[in-house]
Design goal:
This protein is an alpha/beta fold. It folds into two domains: 11-64 and 330-436, Aspartate Aminotransferase, domain 1, CATH 3.90.1150; 78-324, 3-Layer(aba) Sandwich (Aspartate Aminotransferase, domain 2). The chain has helices at 11-23, 78-88, 99-111, 124-139, 165-168, 179-183, 193-203, 228-238, 258-263, 289-292, 311-324, 329-350, 376-379, 384-396, 417-436; strands at 45-49, 52-55, 60-63, 117-121, 143-147, 185-188, 207-212, 242-246, 269-273, 283-287, 356-360, 363-367, 399-400, 409-410. The strands form three sheets. It has a seven-stranded mixed beta sheet with strand order 4-10-9-8-7-5-6, with helices on both faces. Strands 1-2-3-13 form a four-stranded mixed beta sheet. Strands 11-12-14 form a three-stranded antiparallel beta sheet, with helices on one face. Strand 1 and strand 2 form a beta hairpin. The chain is globular. It starts with 10 loop residues before the first helix and ends with a helix.
Length: 437
């Protein structure tokens, strides 16, 4: 069924953006939201319900951003909203231990056998920063090895050849990061075991940790090649280097036990975020008993946070994870996501548009390139101008995609078969408009 562009007011969003730019750098509190990569101006959201967003002008969109991954149940899920409201009624924060954080920690540890103990923090950035500090302390080494195109938050040491907004905005480095810090960060291409081996053979004695996204999500969705994660595990162990999986995006997304469950490879340390907070600010890091025993106050590696273990985030996360543990949850996500992937590919081919889709579970990216997309270099060959045109065309048809080529789409439990079919139909029309552009 054809999904034609529809009349769409933008006046309220435009006025809000004008006000925001006077008060907030770039008018946004996170760079990719500014629509610089896709043109135009951002829409300002008033509310979400299920798989839909409603902006300040009353426009309705099928949402595939999902707050950049946390909302695996969809917006304003009744169970989660009720739990947050009930918890808030008893107080929103105490700066003291609560039974709720024990409950969430138990769920995480049960889902991830590689995690013996877990420390809650407030963001994915804080989680990776803390995990790296712990790795340096445990090994007595200073250097970090990361993969090109993987993004681990805006930690100074990890902005070298990073993905996400750094890749989207074409920022080669970041002013404000000391040269001495950047010097201690080594890089290797993602999915290239030979390159990883060479770096470790040359510098392994000084490297504390190899950190990677087991499924890259910040140069677009890029799955690991067969044997890549197991090979990285073996190489790290051989050189006495800790292996850190950044599962902020993939944890509870690609499987209940994350990418390490899906691919059967256990890291030494894991970072988590997004879904474990049910849409509220959250992060966590955890790992082997001997490593986590170094974290203060049990050990000597200091890390603290006033709002860590915030009861609202903990309760939202608990209810989200309980819902995802119910029978059939991941099977439903897989079916919806596979249908969307197949439909988008067929729509592109039917209109003669070259495109590649990478998908792992309910996260995927549509790249405007022949493919395959296996690493930073191949992702960077995507036609970003064509993606921008496609994004705007889909927005006009009521579908909200990530406003950047190098990000992932997320399917939620709230998406219906009808939402997916409407999206495919809208894409067919949008691909056709690309041909005529």
């Amino acid at each position: 069924m054809a999904v034609s562009p529809r009349p769409r007011s933008v006046e309220s969003s435009r006025r809000l953006f004008e006000r925001a730019r006077k008060l907030i750098p770039g008018g946004v509190n996170s760079p990719v939201r500014a629509f610089k990569a896709v043109g135009g101006e951002p829409i300002f959201i008033l509310r979400g319900r299920g798989a839909h967003l409603f902006d300040a002008d009353g426009n309705d969109y099928i949402d595939y951003v999902g707050s950049w991954g946390p909302l695996i149940l969809g917006h304003a899920h009744g169970r989660v909203v009720k739990a947050i409201a009930e918890t808030a009624g008893s107080g929103v924060s105490f700066g003291a231990p609560t039974p709720i954080e024990i409950e969430l920690a138990s769920i995480v540890i049960e889902a991830f056998p590689s995690i013996a103990k877990v420390r809650m923090v407030n963001s994915g950035t804080e989680a990776t920063m803390s995990a790296l500090r712990l790795a340096r302390a445990a090994t007595g080494r200073d250097r970090t090895l990361k993969m090109e195109g993987c993004y681990h938050g805006h930690v100074d040491a990890l902005l070298v050849k990073a993905g996400s907004g750094v890749l989207t905005l074409g920022i080669p480095g970041c002013p404000g990061v000391p040269v001495s810090v950047a010097r201690d960060t080594l890089t290797a291409p993602y999915n290239d075991l030979d390159a990883l081996r060479k770096v470790l053979d040359q510098h392994g004695a000084g490297i504390a940790a190899v950190i990677l996204e087991p499924v890259a999500g910040n140069m677009g969705c890029v799955p690991p090649k067969e044997g890549y994660l197991a090979g990285a595990r073996d190489l790290a162990k051989r050189h006495g280097v800790l292996l850190i999986f950044d599962e902020v995006m993939t944890g509870f997304r690609v499987a209940f036990g994350g990418a390490q469950e899906r691919y059967g490879v256990a890291p030494d340390l894991t970072t988590l975020g997004k879904i474990i907070g049910g849409g509220l600010p959250v992060g966590a890091y955890g790992g082997r008993e001997d490593l986590m025993a170094r974290v203060a106050p049990e050990g000597d590696v200091y890390q603290a946070g006033t709002l860590s273990g915030n009861p609202l985030a903990m309760r939202a996360g608990i209810e989200t994870l309980k819902a995802m543990k119910e029978p059939g949850a991941y099977e439903r996500l897989e079916t919806l996501s596979a249908t969307l992937e197949a439909g988008l590919l067929e729509a592109a081919r039917s209109k003669g548009v070259t495109a590649t889709i990478n998908r792992v579970g309910s996260m995927m990216t549509l790249f405007f390139t022949e493919g395959p997309v296996i690493d930073y270099a191949s992702a960077a060959r995507s036609d970003t101008r064509r993606y921008a045109t496609f994004f705007q065309s889909m927005l006009e048809r009521g579908v909200y995609l990530p406003p950047a080529q190098f990000e992932a789409f997320f399917v939620s439990m709230a998406h219906s078969e009808s939402d997916v079919q409407t999206t495919i139909d809208a894409a067919r029309e949008s691909f056709a408009s690309l041909r005529s552009a």
